[in-house]
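User: Some background: our group keeps a shared notebook of sequences we're curious about, and every so often someone picks one and asks for a predicted structure to add to the entry. Today it's my turn. The entry only has the sequence so far, pasted here. Could you supply the structure so I can complete it?
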Amino acid sequence: MAKLSKQRLIFGMFLLVLIVAAEIVLAHLKFPAWPAFMVMIFFFESHMDIKKAPSILVGGAVGILCILLTKYFIMAVAPALGVEVSKLLIICLIVYAIVAFGEILPIVFNNYAFMYFLVSGIAVKVLDPAPNLFLWIGIELVVGVIFIAGIIGIGKIMAKMGPPPTDQPGH
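Assistant: Of course. Here's the predicted structure to add to the notebook entry:
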């Protein structure tokens, strides 16, 4: 069984400060926080690999932009094909683009774009009035970068505090 790590506990406290500060500021501005929190989750999921940050950020913005594309595509094509067929067609085109072009342009067409497309699509359906997708992208990019920088900064603080203690027999 794994033991509680003092380093993880301290890291967690610093992370909570970052989360609470972001939530307070975004709530005060009446901005949604979820686009930035998804950046944080994906950054952790990528093992805090800074090389993944551009793919997370660009993919997220592309995923949200795909919702805008979806809206205009349906408006243009629905008179000929109907709303449901138009919706299904654009979803298929976007998913296909993510899969087909993922190796050619992985910074744009990736799982992050797919996930943001999915979550944004659900959010758009339940929110009234319709949300500002460009605001979502701005939050995803600006606050997402702040989260990534904050997590890296916490890691540097933790490194300056010294290496995690090693377990010694008898202690």
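Suggested note for the entry: The helical segments are 6-28, 34-45, 53-81, 83-100, 111-126, 133-160. Residues 53-81 form the longest helix (29 residues).
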